[in-house]
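Format notes (please read before filing issues)

Several people have asked whether sequences and structure tokens are stored in separate files. They are not. Every record keeps both together, in the order shown below: the sequence lines, then the token lines. Line labels are part of the format and must not be stripped during preprocessing.
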Amino acid sequence: MEEVNATLGSILVDVRTNRLKISLRKASDLIGISHNYLSLLEKGVDPRNNRPVQVTPEILKKIAEAYELPIEELLNMAGFLTEFETEKINLLEMLQSSKEVTFGDKVFSSEEKRKLLTIIDTIWGESK
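Then the structure lines:
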């Protein structure tokens, strides 16, 4: 488990109060956690012991789904993703490489990868 930083807490408060416009209790019901725990996550520090609040990826997933936020963003804020894991992916290089490219369970064949490059080139004209 990683410590929750102030940025994550402030994002949670902002989304709950400004975008969703719901109470802490309603938000905790929506997420499926106690209102006390959500309050601690929003504060980032447990006032009883002045220690950072711990959060798991599973709880972050619940929050992401309830608040309609990208899970990667929450995982990154909570320290679960490294900078490397959040870097951009070069689709052109991926499709031109001999590495296996998947979409869900589907593995693209070389021909399908070429077709995707043609489609991208038609849209943006940048894959050459």
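For reference, the curators noted about this record: The chain has a mean pLDDT of 87. The helical segments are 6-19, 24-31, 35-43, 57-67, 71-77, 91-96, 110-124.
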